[in-house]
Specification:
- The chain is of the alpha+beta class and about 150 residues long.
- About 30% of the residues are buried.
- The protein has one domain: Thiol Ester Dehydrase, Chain A (Roll).
- The chain contains four helices and six strands; from the N terminus they run H-H-E-E-H-E-E-H-E-E.
- A hairpin with a 4-residue loop joins strand 5 and strand 6.
- The longest helix is centred in the middle third of the chain and has 19 residues.
- Strands 1-2-4-5-6-3 form a six-stranded antiparallel beta sheet.
Length: about 150
């Protein structure tokens, strides 16, 4: 899919604030294009009782690219995504803002859409490394999504 810069900005804004919770924790999609998403969770509003980033904020950041990549990579007039499974492995405490970069190859998008069109649904995975401002991996995520056909 090809988008104009204005369309990509609209997608970025929509993916950054689809739910009030995303707004409250101040997460944002920093960059979006077909097949690529970079998102950030700020440290300051998401500090827990021991001075590190709240685990729920890290989980939210791990899940955020799934929706953003759906909007920028799949045909939202024919399909919608759901989360089927989510795994996160915490590696070390986060004491700065944290970012995640997620990608999905064009061939995978085509495969998933084709299978969903034929069978009504199709699973796909997104894996990610959540990194602090020093580039240290603070968590590793593995999210299983299912694309479903609208009306199917």
């Amino acid at each position: 899919m090809a988008f104009t810069e204005e369309q990509l900005e609209t997608i970025r804004q929509a993916a950054s604030s689809p739910f009030p919770f995303i707004n409250r924790c101040e997460a944002e999609v920093e960059e979006i294009r077909p097949g690529y998403c970079r998102a950030r969770m700020p440290y300051k509003p998401n500090v827990n009782h021991v001075g590190t980033m709240y685990a729920g904020a890290l989980f939210t950041l791990a899940e955020l690219p799934g929706g953003a990549l759906f909007l920028s990579s799949f045909d939202s007039s024919r399909f919608y995504p759901i989360v089927r499974d989510a795994q996160i492995r915490f590696r070390r405490p986060a004491m700065t803002d944290v970012r995640i970069e997620s990608t999905i190859e064009e061939a995978e998008v085509e495969r998933v859409q084709k299978e969903t069109e034929a069978h009504g649904k199709c699973d796909f995975e997104l894996e990610g490394e959540l990194k602090d401002e020093n580039g240290e991996v603070v968590a590793i995520s593995k999210m299983m999504y299912q694309l479903r056909k609208i009306g199917g």
